[in-house]
Amino acid sequence: MRQVTVLGSCGAFPEPGRACSGFAVDWDGYRLLLDLGYATLPRLLAHWPDGAVDAVVVTHEHPDHCIDLHGLFRMRFYGDPGGPRLPLYCPPGVLDRLSGLEPDVDLHAVFDAHPLPGGHQVGPFALTGLSLPHYVLNAGIRLEADGVVLAYTGDTGPTPALAELGRDADLFIVEATDRDGEADRPTRNLLTSTEAGHWARRSCARRLMLTHFWPGNDRAASVAAARKEFGGEVLAAEEGLIVPLG
Ligand SMILES: [Zn+2]
Questions:
Q1: Which of 96, 158, 203, 219 sits in a 20 to 30 Å window from 82, CA-based?
Q2: What's the whole-model pTM score?
Q3: E strand intervals along 9-137
């Protein structure tokens, strides 16, 4: 089984019944998480009821992408003390934020941390983490296995690095925050859905999945805007949506 399951699709804070950024990747029995924002942990446990995870990849330290990593830490720390450490790939600021919540324990008792941006072999995947423009260090993620590429932006402003990140991807998961006036901001740290479509086209990705929708946005309008730029399939991330890979 090779697939991505959407755990959460909201940017900033979750809408009712939804969650913030998070994706569960199943690849021939290997289990990898991409981001763990607000309210993703219960959905992760609904998807993998035994809670077993092989690796976690977090793009950046903002809580809508990493706060439920704290819950996963507690599950391991209290629920499986002395168990094997969980490989965690993230910019250093992620663990700095978490240690503020758990000042009395050593996070490395649970996590085997590896830095991003950078390159790593993660189970079956060659992982490349590319620095993308955001308010804090954000690593866009490219995973390659058996000639299949899954790419994910985390949060990003417009940059030619997006074409490199998603180059020939089977599925390019791109944030489409679409805040009011986003395209006119003097410093760009987030995308519009039009830009998401543009960079998917520039990357020659096969499919585009929009995510990180600002709460209250018209998601159908975001998809329509991206479709004007990108001729491949355009999906909207939706909690529980399963997308086959390859
Ligand atoms: Zn975000």
A1: 96
A2: 0.98
A3: 22-27, 30-36, 55-57, 86-90, 111-115, 118-122, 125-132
